[in-house]
Task: structure prediction
Amino acid sequence: MMNGPVEPFKIKMVEHVGMPDEKRRKEAIKEAGYNTFLLKSEDVFIDLLTDSGTSAMSDYQWSGMLLGDEAYAGARNFYNLEKAIQDILGYKYIVPTHQGRGAEHLMYSHLVKPGQIVPRNMYFTTSKLHVELPGGKMVDMIIDEAHDPENEHPFKGNVDLKKLQKYIDDYGLDKIAFVSVEQDVNMAGGQPVSMENLRKLREFCNDYKLKIIYDATRSSENAYFIREREKGYENTPIIEILREMMGYSDGCIYSAKKDCLVNIGGFLATNDKDIFEATRNMVVVYEGLHTYGGMAGRDMEAVARGLREGTKYEYLKYRIHQVRYLGDMLREVNVPIVKPIGGHAVFLDAVKFLPHLEREQWPAQTLAAAIYEDSAVRSMERGAISKGRDKETGENLFPALELVRLTIPRRVYTNSHMEYTAESIIRLYEKRNTIPGLKMIYEPEYLRFFQARFEKLSL
Result:
């Protein structure tokens, strides 16, 4: 008998989805160049491509959408959003944007100067590019355990302060633009950062007068892990944990499409008046007026309500445990996954899953395509294709982690969907030696994982 987590909600509306037959699945993935990003949504049965903008909103959020004030300037929904961020995260100033990468663009283009570096606890694709575009470079300061899929460290997102010190020693303090910390580190497998580590990092950066900017996109999920795993926080309300976490930073960028349970939206927030004034000035050029920043009034209301809703302990407990339910089913039969199971997704170790493939045959991209072909479940590559090329040499970069991300949308799928997904992956694992690799035949200049195309090789 399966023992999945019980959903703390009722289903009030359904969306019908079809199951393409085997012939259509083979056609669809070939037409998409074996890139799951290029599949048509109508050809997908269970969509685990991303948790970004794919959540199911609540009746409370939908009712707020009807209260959208679509005034160009000074919409009341902006002030509701501002109050929610102040209440939940504790920042004084906010600048709304259309989504997280809009916030990254404003924040990073303001803080990064040519030739500077940004130490971060593992890169993320858009974050890395937004540091590089103004002439900077993102470097890795995450603990070594994060690069080992088998390591069970409870906070693999932690910053290695010795690595950070070495960057300061090697480059000089003036070459450090700021320190970037991601909550629930995506590319490491959804791995959290401990409160102790955040506290020590703040003390370290105070000594050098360095700013700390969070990628707080999955901060509520990170807060849940702190409550679950860190001594002294076992009974602490999630909002209190969040307020302490954010208090160790100078500001954050935030894609509301994750923990805020909405389909679009984002913001940057700060207590630094200089950052606020500079980015508020820039937002009117790139996004929209500073009281909407690329969002409609109704969207801002949904974000404000979703931010509050997404901190509820019972919701977060269900959310994390549904991800864990899928991971445990795979782990029980020795399918190689990143351990411990993270916050928003289960990550398959594609190198161990497909050991017969060379890295140049793109094992993670291959596995994501094979999963779709088997079951119409869409996942995504998080490995060398995502990492891209060395900016100076043009050579492909092959990170230690070559992963396929099975990303669980919030409040969308049931436990039986998780079981169906697990069955497909287990089936593929049993015949893994029959899966041929891929050859890349088209590569765009930026963020190639979105649009690259491949063809299937022969075994």
In short: The mean pLDDT is 97.
